[in-house]
Amino acid sequence: MGAKVGGSEEYNSEINVTPMVDIMLVLLIIFMIVTPLLQQGVTVNIPKELNQPIEDAEITKDTSVVISIPNNSDFYIGKDPFPISELGEKIQTMMKDKAPDKRIVYIKSDISVDYGTVVQAIDTIRKQDIDKIGLVADKKKGGAAQSQN
After folding, report:
1. Residue 49, pLDDT score
2. Torsions phi, psi of 34, nearest 5?
3. Residues sharing a CB contact under 8 Å with residue 40, sequence separation 6 or more, in sequence order
4. Mean pLDDT (10-residue bins), the chain, 149 residues
5. pTM of the model
6. Sign of the four-CA dihedral 88, 94, 99, 101
């Protein structure tokens, strides 16, 4: 009766990937923006470890205590600065509810920080009856790891 106008009777069997590519690019941009914000604490240029230390999953948990020493005069727990005189009190309050075998404090020190400054932080930690101290180092491949002291 009537002629068909505007098209053929065949179905289009090709997949339209343009919306999928758009979504993937948006997700890529979101992850590129969010990933640097996930880093905990203060950025510190930590020394490279050549003998491949064992990774400790506890270091990335929110309940772990990580002391960052970016230079010879600044001490941070997370992103909060503390003078060395108040560092012991803060560690003691953060560790009071933890079991004795779970009381580990990690030290993340910049490569340019003096050895004496790190020893001063270790001495402050040991005065709080904490014997397990983890020193954070980068693996040769670039991942974060720690070694028990």
Report:
1. 61
2. -80, -35
3. 60, 62, 66, 78, 79
4. 62 84 94 81 68 62 82 86 87 83 85 88 88 77 47
5. 0.58
6. negative
Q: Tokens for 132, please give them.
A: 């397990």
Query: By three-state DSSP, how is residue 24 classified?
Result: helix
| 107 Cα distance to chain centroid | 13
Q: Smallest Cα–Cα separation from 103: which of 115, 114, 91?
A: 91
Both tokens assigned to 39: 């880093």
Bridge partners for 107 per DSSP: 67, 135
Domains belonging to the chain, first-starting first, are 48-148 (3.30.420.270)
Give which of 71, 76, 146 is closest to 112, Cα–Cα: 71
Cβ pair 66, 90 in contact under 8 A: no
Q: Which residue has the tokens 């400054």?
A: 117
